[in-house]
């Protein structure tokens, strides 16, 4: 009881926060999870009554009674046979020829099948450490193979990502453990940037709003000068082109201003 | 004298590799150099980074490119411009025969081998393949640098790991 109270009392340690930023620490996600490994797809649709590869070609099994078929089905033979079918399914998506099982694309497909099976196992038994280690190793291996494939055959790499539904993200430049201090620093920096950008945008808006009246005045003045010069038969310094240029600028400003006002109205309505 | 030569050479043309960056109209180029450690009398690798003006985005991450210094600095950061792409990443052409290469083998040879075994429809066809970049930002996240996720935002960034 007392210990709990003391920890509550001394929680104000560390950096004193002067800026009002709220840090929400990202939740820990185990590395075997699909969102971390980059798998965008679950196990392929393979029915429990399908027959493993070894028996699939058998003539006797085709006209065998239902009970015998059930005995030879994946549901009865176990997970191992089911996993083999999953791997085969994924390898068939990218296979080059019938006997192809050691090209990079088939290797990656095979690993992907294995990884997805183990991920399924991990969902059921999250405390199975052996599987956890195994799936982690396989994910790393696949990433390495993808990295190499990217380096020597980019087109095939992209095609493979599409076929197997995998995401590829490179390793961070400096992988490190997340700290509170670093996160707060980054958030503060973002907060300051936001303030700066908002101020700049406000100032920009102010200047742009003053542009219209200024251009109108300028147009009037130019026209007046030109008329005076013509009347008094002085050398003309303000040409028609100058006036048309200012008119065009004014028209542009009016269009932009209308668009801005519409946007503002829309925002107000949304709020 | 030597330093003068070095500076002059730097201003002429440099060969480097494009690395991921968040800059929009510029590419970040890494130029590998060797630096002599006078105590050990050994050369050690030393990287230099240049930001190069590239409005048309001719170079993508990983490409080996030639860069040249601009007559005047464009911004505080951008000092060079991208001249040309020498070797695009993952699309190498053999300079002697002019054939396309994948790793240590010609692509034609790989295709021929597949045809001898009986090519399947599921296999990858180089002729039908789209040019690089169609998966960029969808499944291939290599054009920008990835970083450790440090906060939970409303909109999730795919480059945060």
UniProtKB/TrEMBL annotation, chain A:
Record has Ribonucleoprotein as a keyword: yes
Name the UniProt record assigns to this protein: Small ribosomal subunit protein uS15m
Subcellular location: Mitochondrion
This protein's UniProt keywords: Coiled coil, Mitochondrion, Ribonucleoprotein, Ribosomal protein, Transit peptide
One Gene Ontology term of the molecular function aspect: RNA binding
Biological process according to GO: mitochondrial translation
SUPFAM superfamilies in the record: S15/NS1 RNA-binding domain
Coiled-coil region: 236-263
Family note: Belongs to the universal ribosomal protein uS15 family.
GO cellular component, one term: mitochondrial small ribosomal subunit
Automatic annotation (TrEMBL), chain B:
Alphabetized UniProt keyword annotations: Ribonucleoprotein, Ribosomal protein
Gene3D superfamilies cross-referenced by the UniProt entry: Nucleic acid-binding proteins (2.40.50.140)
A GO CC annotation given for this chain: mitochondrial small ribosomal subunit
Gene Ontology MF, one: structural constituent of ribosome
Keyword Ribonucleoprotein: yes
An annotated GO BP: mitochondrial translation
Pfam family, one: Ribosomal_S17
Family stated for the protein in its record: Belongs to the universal ribosomal protein uS17 family.
Protein name from the UniProt record: 28S ribosomal protein S17, mitochondrial
Gene source species: Leptidea sinapis
């Amino acid at each position: 009881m007392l210990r709990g109270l003391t920890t509550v009392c001394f929680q104000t340690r560390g950096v004193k926060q002067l800026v009002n930023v709220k840090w929400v620490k990202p939740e820990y996600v185990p590395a075997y999870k699909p969102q971390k490994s980059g798998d965008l797809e679950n196990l392929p649709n393979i029915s429990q009554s399908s027959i493993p590869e070894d028996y699939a070609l058998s003539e006797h099994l085709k006209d065998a009674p239902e009970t015998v078929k059930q005995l030879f089905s994946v549901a009865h033979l176990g997970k191992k046979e089911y996993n083999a079918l999953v791997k085969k399914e994924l390898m068939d998506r990218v296979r080059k020829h019938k006997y192809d099982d050691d090209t990079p694309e088939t290797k990656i497909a095979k690993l992907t099948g294995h990884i997805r099976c183990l991920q399924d196992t991990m969902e059921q038994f999250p405390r199975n450490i052996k599987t956890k280690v195994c799936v982690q190793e396989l994910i790393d291996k696949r990433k390495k193979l993808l990295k190499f494939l990217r380096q020597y055959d980019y087109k095939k790499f992209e095609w493979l990502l599409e076929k197997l539904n995998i995401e590829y993200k490179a390793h961070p430049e400096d992988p490190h453990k997340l700290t509170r201090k670093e996160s707060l620093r980054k958030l503060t920096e973002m907060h300051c940037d936001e303030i700066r950008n908002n101020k700049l945008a406000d100032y920009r808006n102010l200047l742009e709003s003053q542009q219209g009246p200024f251009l109108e005045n300028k147009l009037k003045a130019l026209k007046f000068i030109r008329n005076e010069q013509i009347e008094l038969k002085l050398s003309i310094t303000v040409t028609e082109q100058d006036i048309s240029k200012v008119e065009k600028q004014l028209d542009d400003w009016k269009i932009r201003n209308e668009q801005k006002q519409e946007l503002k109205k829309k925002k107000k309505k949304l709020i | 004298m030597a330093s003068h030569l070095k500076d002059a050479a730097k201003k002429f043309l440099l060969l480097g590799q494009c690395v991921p960056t968040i800059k929009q109209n510029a590419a970040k180029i890494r130029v590998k150099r060797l630096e002599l450690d006078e105590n050990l009398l050994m050369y050690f690798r030393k990287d230099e980074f240049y930001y190069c003006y590239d409005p048309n985005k001719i170079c993508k991450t990983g490409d080996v490119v030639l860069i040249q210094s601009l007559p005047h600095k464009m911004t505080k950061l951008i000092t060079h411009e991208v001249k040309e792409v020498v070797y695009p990443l993952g699309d190498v052409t053999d300079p002697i025969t002019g054939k396309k290469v994948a790793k240590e083998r010609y692509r034609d040879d790989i295709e021929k081998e597949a045809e001898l075994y009986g090519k399947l429809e599921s296999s990858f066809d180089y002729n039908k393949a789209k040019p690089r970049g169609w998966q960029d930002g969808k499944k291939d996240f290599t054009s920008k640098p990835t970083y450790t996720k440090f906060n939970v935002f409303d909109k999730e960034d795919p480059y945060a790991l």
